[in-house]
Amino acid sequence: MSKQRTTQPITTGTSVIGLVYDGGVMIAADTLLSYGSMAKSFNTPRLYNIEDRILLGASGEYSDLQEIVAKVKALALQETTNSMESIYVDRKLPAKSLWNYLRAVMYQKRSKMNPYWNDVVVAGWDDQADKPFLGTVDKLGTTLQENLVATGFGGYLAMPLLREKWRSDLSEGEARALLEDAMKVLFYRDCRASARIQLAKCTSDGCIVSEPYELDHSNGWNAPSMIRAAGDLDGDGGW
């Protein structure tokens, strides 16, 4: 029997963006899945909370993301089971270790010419360094650890806004507002994006993923840059 390979993504999700703020890390993604150019599902989460310690999100092929999440949960369960075998060990899977694990998995899959068609964001709290962790792994196994990350069109449309507004001392509220502004930009400019989003955060107390909710974009299309009178070709209000 001949082997089959995924040669292109079919059912996909778009950008995942994230940032480190003062006291934690926060990521955001919308809940739209697209089947080619058709909107297939409007309420499919792409952010996952692994053992209340790690946040995982990804853009790209959704079926591959489901397989990645299954691998990650199995790995986390194995770590927990091993730690329970000894009363002297309290070992849980750190976010940075998962990030390195996914680097190896993605590189192995692409080396076999059967890659996972995803760009993955991993976030969590680094207990050893006592600071948040944020990193990405792409379909080739290339990794990046930074204070600001974005996958998909977010790298082109949202990243400039994040770089302009980000500060290392951002509060949690400011971080949420900045991510929501970036998600609005993606909704307006990326035809595969939706205004229905999720936010997730991770601090030293653990990780939380919000329920999906709608961004307030009621006045977005009334912005001056979106309005031009009929026949006003140069935008100055004249003819």
Automatic annotation (TrEMBL):
Family: Belongs to the peptidase T1B family.
Cellular compartments annotated: Cytoplasm; Nucleus
GO CC, any one term: nucleus
Function: Non-catalytic component of the proteasome.
Keyword terms: Cytoplasm, Nucleus, Proteasome
Single Gene Ontology BP annotation: proteolysis involved in protein catabolic process
Primary site of residence: cytoplasm
Name listed for the protein in its UniProt record: Proteasome subunit beta
Domain of life, per lineage: Eukaryota
